Amino acid sequence: MLDENIEKGRDEKRQEFRTLLRDEVSEAVKANMVDVTNAMSVVTERMNRWEAEQDAAEKEGRKHNLPGSMEETHEGETYNFGRVFRGLTLGNPEKECPMELAMSRELYDMGTVPDTAGGFLVPTQVFEDQIIPLLRPQVIAMDLGITQLPVTGAGVVEIPREVSGPAVDNVAENAANTATDLSFGNHRLEPHCAQSYVKASRRFLQLGVGADQFIRRRMAEELALKWNEWILKGTGADGNPIGIYNTAGVNTVDFTSATSGSGAVVTADFYTDLLAMEDTLADANALTGAQSLGFAVANRFLRAARQIKSEDSTADHLEMGRKIFSAGAEDFILGYRYRRTTQLASGANTEAIFGDFSKAVLATWNNLSIEASNVADDALQKRQTHIVAYIDVDVAVTQPTAFCVTQNLDTTNL
After folding, report:
1. Domain boundary residue among 43, 65, 87?
2. Which alpha helices (DSSP H) does 202-316 contain, by range?
3. Global pTM?
4. pLDDT band at 73 (very low <50, low <70, confident <90, very high)
């Protein structure tokens, strides 16, 4: 009986201990859960605050990146050239293009360019997003890889350019090579105004059916012609920048013997001279490591390349590598991309440029500016809107020896 009472007492003590231990563990778990919950609440609060700050920073950044685009009345809209011209035509931009007007006014306030007396300033981002993609396939130097340099402000910019390259000598044992320095100079980039002038039906603009796409494409076509001319063959006179062809220090190859009979027959020397163009870049250490090698050629240059004779004695020999219907047009010259253009001369002195186009720079200043009038010239009689878009650009060749141009190639009678 005594043993039973003792054992019963022990069981009661054990149960009491278990209950106490369970209660203590439960309290500890509850306390820890509270701590975990509090910690999670702090983390959640901090995350929410961080996300709010990021959202605010993104909106603020976008507002400054594309002025006027985050105003409540037109949040999320994209810039529309059709609305701009319709607003200018109707004389009511506040109604027709409020977002674009807000952008233009803010750009005026920023003082990026002088006020154009009623015109519109197009943000650089809009120009790059909506006009540059249209220009790229038409401005062949852009397609070939010319370096683009957006410039802020209205002043000149100076960039370094190579004046003379290093020399490499054979050095014998215990001898020294000739000391040569890589000479640099400064090239001043100054604004040259490239202007597009197009005419559009006022009724078409008011209807707005495809107006935006039509206007952007026409402006790009007009600007592309001028940019091609300036980049490839600008003369430096009459407001033109100096283009690649006329830059001092570019390599030249004489193509006099590449044709015979006043340019009526393309001889095998044409191929030799093409290789010589490649050799000039190799000799100037401009071929290895080049980033954007290619040809810009006049139409007759390409025609001549397709008519190279296997021999140069008579005109009835087959062309080298004749391909008419089987392969279509070739995409490469000597393995390098080419683009044809009307901005290089054909005829008695047919022109072509071969080089690393990344060693040339196309600088653009500030913003595209747009003005429109429905009374200028005969626009009132013809129910037209005359549209002018202009932007300042300049061209610089930073390494002239990275380019080679043709001389004395006569394709007159091809």
Report:
1. 65
2. 202-207, 211-233, 269-283, 299-305
3. 0.70
4. very low
